[in-house]
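User: Here's a protein and a ligand (calcium ion). What would the complex look like?
Assistant: Let me lay out the input and then the predicted complex.
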Amino acid sequence: MRILLVEDESAIADTVLYALRAEGYDAVHCLTGGEALREAGRTPFDLAVLDVGLPDIGGFALCRELRRERDLPVIFLTAQSAEADRILGLEIGADDYVTKPFSPRELATRVRVVLRRAGGNSGSVVATEPEPGFAHDSEGKRIRYRGQALDLTRYEYGLLAALLQRPGAVLSRAQLMDRVWGDALDSGDRTVDTHIKTLRAKLREVDAEADPIRTHRGLGYSLDNG
Ligand code: CA
């Protein structure tokens, strides 16, 4: 697994590199966003760990650039825990973040978890007979659809897990907000709709014909697990 680390503070980068390499990852360090884009252009990465505060283009803009060509799991290093909502929310849509100062071993663990969650794309899945509907591994926080692991963001996972709990039952936007976003401040009605939309797109990638999430106008959403 090839990991990109973009961090302009060498002392932090050194400890992270050490922890990632100890886990057996092929970790590449870049000091700036520009350098990272050149590296990524040469050989694709399986995951990126990006510092939010970079001297040139900044972590968020870099994330968008890196994801322009292909989907890439991203973990942010941030100095402010107040940024968490932005990082994990719609605006940035990262897979995870750690707040400085952090333990390099904790970061290595997050890397492993995010990679495992994204594992559906690795091509190492053994072909078995097609499974119908959804399979939810609530401990591993993974959901498979028709036998394929879904690569979901935290909120997409939360939404799908909430709908899966009671297939067929209609959940209102308010109920979904409550379960998935809790008391996050920056979320509105559109938040649910937007995530439902990205979720549907991911399900269509597995099965172009299927549309298991039903919209009930003025009421909310339900799920067919068939
Ligand atoms: Ca920095």
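Summary: The two ends are 35 Å apart (CA to CA).
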